[in-house]
Amino acid sequence: MKEGTKVVREDFEDSTGAINTPIYQSTAFRFPEGEKYRYSREANPTTLELSKKIAEIEGGEIGVSFSSGMGAISTTLLTLLKPGSSLLVTMDMFGRSLRFCNDFLRQWGVEVEVTKPGNTNLLESSKIHHDVIFVESITNPLLRVIDIEALSKIAKENGSLVIVDSTFASPINQKPIELGADIALESASKFLAGHNDVIAGVAAGPSSIITKIDLMRRTLGTSLEPQPAYLVLRGLKTLKIRMDVINKNAMQIAEFLEDHPKVQKVYYPGLKSHPDYSIAKRVLKGFGGVVSFEVRGTMNDAIRVMQNLKVIIPAQSLGGVNSLISHPPTMSHRTLTPEERKIVGINESLLRLSVGIEEVEDLTDDLDKALNSI
């Protein structure tokens, strides 16, 4: 089946003949029929259908669902690492992910190597064995595109496990497992669910590894409730058509911003000016729905632009049908130190725009008026 069919189709078997997966809002299931599920923290029919669907569209053997994207990240890493293990990450990633790796895991006894941004630094560091290499396929917020294909090849030669946070790409634009990664995980709150109304996380990969992660999920309690699982399943049905519109809108907006006199710099993998443009063309089927740009001015100017928008909503999340804009230095990456932000390249005037499915002319007009207000 093609991608647009995979995300719509559900295989759930129900005696009522329901055409959508039901919400099984039950804490427990009666024996002996309910032995498969027992207790909803461990397994729930609605949540298991989502896990099955994620494995199918990501190309993994099995999948697992979590209460959040950070739940997926923390549970996965805590399963695969222990005191004395080695972990390789890049500094340019979501602030909470970096803090969990560089602060908590390091204090727990994991040897953490943090590389500076760019594929050259990452690929060079990956030539030395690490138990786990954890990267974002498109980094947050400067949208560097990791060469997953090259990284996975080097990692396999050195016996390293590659985990890819593919939230910004979505399985429509990239399947990390097809490029050689071992595990693909995402914050399902973003493009997968797509309506800014649910918190969830997912992961997929080989059954030998995901089964262990699933057992850790049951122990830690990072389990997904059936109601949000249902909302993600609903969102998946429109994922392909949403991403088609979002990819197109984002490209047009990136080009518009690159020509705007009040914009200093634009970060978008689809632009030829992007440092990873050649890699992006090779490893991505679409360039994604996030555009970051630096306002020509101060931090106050950037915040003023964000506040003067009328169609685009100032908010920290991304990946929904509504366009959202945020100021990474004071929002998603506020936990990074000034020195860390400087190394990554996060300037005070940086804004991160998550492009939605609105009419693109309304979005560019909104941006133009807000930028010209400074």
From TrEMBL:
GO biological process, one term: methionine biosynthetic process
CC cofactor: pyridoxal 5'-phosphate
Recorded GO CC terms: cytoplasm
CDD domains: CGS_like (cd00614)
SUPFAM superfamilies associated with the record: PLP-dependent transferases (SSF53383)
Gene Ontology terms for molecular function: cysteine-S-conjugate beta-lyase activity; pyridoxal phosphate binding
Keywords associated with the record: Lyase, Pyridoxal phosphate
InterPro entries given in the database record: Cys/Met-Metab_PyrdxlP-dep_enz (IPR000277), PyrdxlP-dep_Trfase (IPR015424), PyrdxlP-dep_Trfase_major (IPR015421), PyrdxlP-dep_Trfase_small (IPR015422)
NCBIfam families given in the database record: PRK06460.1
Xref: PANTHER family: CYSTATHIONINE BETA-LYASE, TRANS-SULFURATION ENZYME FAMILY MEMBER
Official protein name in the record: Cystathionine gamma-synthase
